[in-house]
Amino acid sequence: MSVRSSLLAAAVTFASLGAAHANGLRPIEGLSINLGDVSGVAYYTVEPDGFRVVTTLAQGAAGTPIRFVTVLAPGQRVVVSTPYQAPALEISRKGDELLVRKASTFSN
């Protein structure tokens, strides 16, 4: 299966939500991510240690996909960005809710 087919299948399987704006996700509900030339999908599952967030991104249709996984406890966040001028994306956990929004600034 090609990279493009894999990403498309994941997006369809996880019912893409569209543009990255502030919203709450449910477990296994996918979110389509667009960071300029880099795009993909993110979703999460509930694990004993926290929310396991899985993000898969690739540059264009032929780009090599990369996947990163992080586990978020309440109050934690992760910022996804590229070296290009596309806006960064913040994925954060607030209690039992996972929020996705454009990051206002990239900071530690």
Write the layout of secondary structure elements.
Blueprint: H1 3-13, E1 23-25, E2 31-35, E3 38-47, E4 50-59, E5 66-72, E6 77-80, E7 89-94, E8 97-102
Antiparallel strand pairs: 1-8, 2-3, 3-4, 4-5, 6-7, 7-8
How would you describe what is shown here?
10% of the residues lie in helices and 47% in strands. By secondary structure, the protein is mainly beta. It has a 4-stranded antiparallel β-sheet with strand order 1-8-7-6, with no helix packed on it. It has a 4-stranded antiparallel β-sheet with strand order 2-3-4-5, covered by helices on one side. Strand 3 and strand 4 (50-59) form a beta hairpin. The longest helix is centred in the N-terminal third of the chain and has 11 residues, at 3-13. The protein is globular, with a radius of gyration of 13 Å. The N and C termini lie far apart (38 Å). Keywords: Signal. Residues 1-22 form the signal peptide.
